[in-house]
């Protein structure tokens, strides 16, 4: 036991130091990873709740159902699901025919489609964990679960955005109209209800949307020569803590009472497509893996056994110009990555694991959390698989989409700040926010339609924060270190509720570190590192380009206005305007790290 504790203590110190310095994740040696995995299996995670000992690779990796069409109906419903062969089924939420998660939806570029979304849930699997002190919450939310379906990464009219105040309660429904304006890409849909996102997503309300076009058709004759059918595999990655009775636990911090917001909880078992540490037989050939970090809090540094190389061919917004070779990739919550891995490069009988060695964010690391090291296993069979080869180009060649456009010249620079000023590693971070503002504060960003802006996203915290913009896609320019002590000394933070986003230029302490090559394409979520200014380049589309007014005022569903502290009002209606930008650590967006923004006519 003492050896395990010393290993964890050493790694915990390394994690805190690396994250506080804004450094990239440091790799964990194979022997250390195995030791950590053994600790998890014995349930020895210090100071944290933990799952019962579970044997990896007892379950086959599920393939989620695939649906398509221009008129789709999905309901969010209550169900039960067994996450592991040695656990009984526990209460969950699911979409459509799934008892946990939702089907993968295929849609087509240029083809509008509708999704009728209904809420038929009864109660909530995590009702005891609902914090009624958060923005807009009340006791009724434990039993009448508010939901809001958001198609993450979609270019969508305001009335179908899945805004956090567009709540649908049990017995109600809403129809979203999706424009089909997205390029071929891997999007995902998930619940986005105000102050309930972490609860509802953890309970199961999420799924993937694969957008196809005439080049990336998803069929075997696609013009890009990419694996398809059985050789294309969506992977929804999560981490959880399980209870011995098969139910889920969203609690990771024993010092926070049940029913109170924790600020960010890690898990000790990896979950892929709804199963804990599953295994899958694969043929000897190329596979296309469509991966989403659907976790609540953790950033993962993903790699395969023996650092087996793979190729990144796309990210949030679609395909890159050409494949990018890699042996690991750092994926924050809500980020997606499209990769090719050649299981024909290893011998039949090889066991290839999808692994993680990223230190947990600083708050969790300070409590003793260590990297959750394992997601799933692939068993390489002797049968031949997809042999189409690795494409040299994905854009710009004959019969391919156009190359990514050159970066346009910005006409405006906007500074925004990411803050949690009440204590760094302290457990009570009640002032988590963007720009020092509450969600309900009226001082919001108002970029003009048609303008190109640089956003300087200043992360003043000791943790990474993935920042997501609704509606607009962007390109990542780089990350620049900043002297935070001088920045905050020269510009003291005012009273909470007053905007604080001072200019950063004279506090930058080094050159811009360019994004990883795989980040070169269109993004909707960017991981901002501690003590850095992350620069993104974003163009806000116009009404003429979109075919709808992105600044339209629209009525929220009757009876669902989220008051600041008085609960979701059950009478009247609300007017919602614009979109949102927020941290996509779900615990964080549920507690004031989310703001509205409007795109105004020029």
From TrEMBL:
<feature type="domain" description="Plastocyanin-like">
    <location>
        <begin position="144"/>
        <end position="214"/>
    </location>
</feature>
<dbReference type="InterPro" id="IPR006311">
    <property type="entry name" value="TAT_signal"/>
</dbReference>
<protein>
    <submittedName>
        <fullName>Multicopper oxidase domain-containing protein</fullName>
    </submittedName>
</protein>
<feature type="domain" description="Plastocyanin-like">
    <location>
        <begin position="430"/>
        <end position="540"/>
    </location>
</feature>
<dbReference type="InterPro" id="IPR011707">
    <property type="entry name" value="Cu-oxidase-like_N"/>
</dbReference>
<dbReference type="Pfam" id="PF00394">
    <property type="entry name" value="Cu-oxidase"/>
</dbReference>
<feature type="region of interest" description="Disordered">
    <location>
        <begin position="552"/>
        <end position="571"/>
    </location>
</feature>
<dbReference type="InterPro" id="IPR011706">
    <property type="entry name" value="Cu-oxidase_C"/>
</dbReference>
<dbReference type="InterPro" id="IPR001117">
    <property type="entry name" value="Cu-oxidase_2nd"/>
</dbReference>
<dbReference type="InterPro" id="IPR008972">
    <property type="entry name" value="Cupredoxin"/>
</dbReference>
<dbReference type="InterPro" id="IPR045087">
    <property type="entry name" value="Cu-oxidase_fam"/>
</dbReference>
<feature type="domain" description="Plastocyanin-like">
    <location>
        <begin position="283"/>
        <end position="343"/>
    </location>
</feature>
<comment type="similarity">
    <text>Belongs to the multicopper oxidase family.</text>
</comment>
<dbReference type="Pfam" id="PF07732">
    <property type="entry name" value="Cu-oxidase_3"/>
</dbReference>
<dbReference type="Pfam" id="PF07731">
    <property type="entry name" value="Cu-oxidase_2"/>
</dbReference>
């Amino acid at each position: 036991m003492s050896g395990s504790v010393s290993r964890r203590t050493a790694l915990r110190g390394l994690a805190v130091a690396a994250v506080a310095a804004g450094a990239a994740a440091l790799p964990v040696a194979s022997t250390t990873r195995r030791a950590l995995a053994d600790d998890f299996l014995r349930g020895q995670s210090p100071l944290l709740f933990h799952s019962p000992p579970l044997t990896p690779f007892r379950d086959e990796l599920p393939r989620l159902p695939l649906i398509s069409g221009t008129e789709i109906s999905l309901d969010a419903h209550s169900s039960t699901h067994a996450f592991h062969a040695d656990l009984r089924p526990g209460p969950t939420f699911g979409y459509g025919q799934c008892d946990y998660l939702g089907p993968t939806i295929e849609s087509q570029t240029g083809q509008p489609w509708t999704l009728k979304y209904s809420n038929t849930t009864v109660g909530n699997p995590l009702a005891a964990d609902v914090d009624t002190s958060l923005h807009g919450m009340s006791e009724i939310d434990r039993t009448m679960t508010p939901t809001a379906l958001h198609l993450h990464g979609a270019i969508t009219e305001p009335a179908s955005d899945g805004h956090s105040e567009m709540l649908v309660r049990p017995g109600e429904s809403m129809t979203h109209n999706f424009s089909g304006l997205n390029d071929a890409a891997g999007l995902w849909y998930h619940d986005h209800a105000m102050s309930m996102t972490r609860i509802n997503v953890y309970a199961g309300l999420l799924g993937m949307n694969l957008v196809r076009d005439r080049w990336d058709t998803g069929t075997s004759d696609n013009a890009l020569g990419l694996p398809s059918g059985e050789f294309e595999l969506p992977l929804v990655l999560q981490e959880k803590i399980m209870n011995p009775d098969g139910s889920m636990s969203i609690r990771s911090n024993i010092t926070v009472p049940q029913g109170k917001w924790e600020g960010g909880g890690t898990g000790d078992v990896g979950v892929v497509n709804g199963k804990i540490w599953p295994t899958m037989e694969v043929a000897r050939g190329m596979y296309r893996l469509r991966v989403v970090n659907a976790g609540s809090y953790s950033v993962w540094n993903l790699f395969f056994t023996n650092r087996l190389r793979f190729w990144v061919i796309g990210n949030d917004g679609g395909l890159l110009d050409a494949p990018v070779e890699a042996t690991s990739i750092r994926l924050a919550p809500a980020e997606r990555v499209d990769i090719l891995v050649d299981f024909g490069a290893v011998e039949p009988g090889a066991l290839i694991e999808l692994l993680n060695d990223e230190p947990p964010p600083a708050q969790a690391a300070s409590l003793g959390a260590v990297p959750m090291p394992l997601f799933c296993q692939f068993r390489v069979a002797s049968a031949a698989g997809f042999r189409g080869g690795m494409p040299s180009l994905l854009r710009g060649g004959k019969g391919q989409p156009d190359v990514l456009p050159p970066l346009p010249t910005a006409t405006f620079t906007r500074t925004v700040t990411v803050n949690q000023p009440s204590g760094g590693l302290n457990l009570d971070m009640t002032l988590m926010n963007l720009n020092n503002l509450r969600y309900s504060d009226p001082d919001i960003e108002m970029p003009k339609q048609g303008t190109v802006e640089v956003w300087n996203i200043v992360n003043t915290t000791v943790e990474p924060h993935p920042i997501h913009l609704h509606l607009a896609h962007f390109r990542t320019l780089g990350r620049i270190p900043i002297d935070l002590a001088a920045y905050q000394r020269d510009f003291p933070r005012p009273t909470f509720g007053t905007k604080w986003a001072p200019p950063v230029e004279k506090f930058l302490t080094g050159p811009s570190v360019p994004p990883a090559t795989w980040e070169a394409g269109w993004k909707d979520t960017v991981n901002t590192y501690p003590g850095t200014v992350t620069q993104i380049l974003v163009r806000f589309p116009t009404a003429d380009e979109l075919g709808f007014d992105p600044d339209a005022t629209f009525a929220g569903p009757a009876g669902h206005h989220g008051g600041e502290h008085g609960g979701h009002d059950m009478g009247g209606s609300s007017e919602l305007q614009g979109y949102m930008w927020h941290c996509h650590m779900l615990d964080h967006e549920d507690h004031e790290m989310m703001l509205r923004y409007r795109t105004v006519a020029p």
